[in-house]
Amino acid sequence: MGLPTRHEVAAAELSHGERRQLEVAVALATDPWLLLLDEPAAGMSPAETARLTELIAALPGEVTVLLIEHDLDMVFELADTVTVMHLGRHLMTGTPDEVRACAEVQNAYLGTVAVSS
């Protein structure tokens, strides 16, 4: 799980990102077929997020991952299908490319820029 040199370190002494990696390892020890991850990258540095993304991407194919995440780079790298919620309602479901290209998603999350003349 990306922590081979940290086996003698107490969990409380691990970095935030390392603790997230450990949490995934503990969950996988139960041999799940479904892994629910609620904002696993929250509070992580870009380097920690990259390590966690690699770890999730390397999970066995028989483990389905349901990921709730605001880090869109992570979502687009990992997901086959993305469902976008906005203000408590379903906005769209599609592939990462479809979601990226959707004007309604762009408007909801990027806003519109008013051009003055």
Summarize this, please?
With 117 residues, this protein is of the alpha+beta class. Helices cover 39% and strands 18% of the residues. It is built from 5 helices and 4 strands, in the order αβαβαββαα.
Show the helix and strand layout.
Blueprint: H1 16-28, E1 34-38, H2 46-57, E2 64-68, H3 72-78, E3 82-86, E4 89-94, H4 96-101, H5 103-110
Parallel strand pairs: 1-2
Antiparallel strand pairs: 3-4
Protein architecture, described:
This protein is an alpha+beta fold and 117 residues long. It folds into two domains: 1-67, no CATH class; 80-110, no CATH class. It has five helices and four strands. It is elongated, with a radius of gyration of 17 Å.
Question: What distinguishing features does this structure have?
Answer:
39% helix, two-stranded antiparallel sheet, alpha+beta, 4 strands
Strand count, sense and barrel status of the largest sheet are:
2 strands, parallel
Name the helicity range: 25-40%
What string gives the helices and strands in order?
A: HEHEHEEHH
| Spatial order of strands in the largest sheet | 1-2
**Rg, alpha carbons:** 17 Å
Number of helices: 5
Q: Oligomeric form of this entry?
A: single chain
Structurally, the number of domains stands at 2
State the low-pLDDT regions, or none: 113-117
Name the structural class.
Answer: alpha+beta
Overall pLDDT confidence: 84
Total count of strands? 4
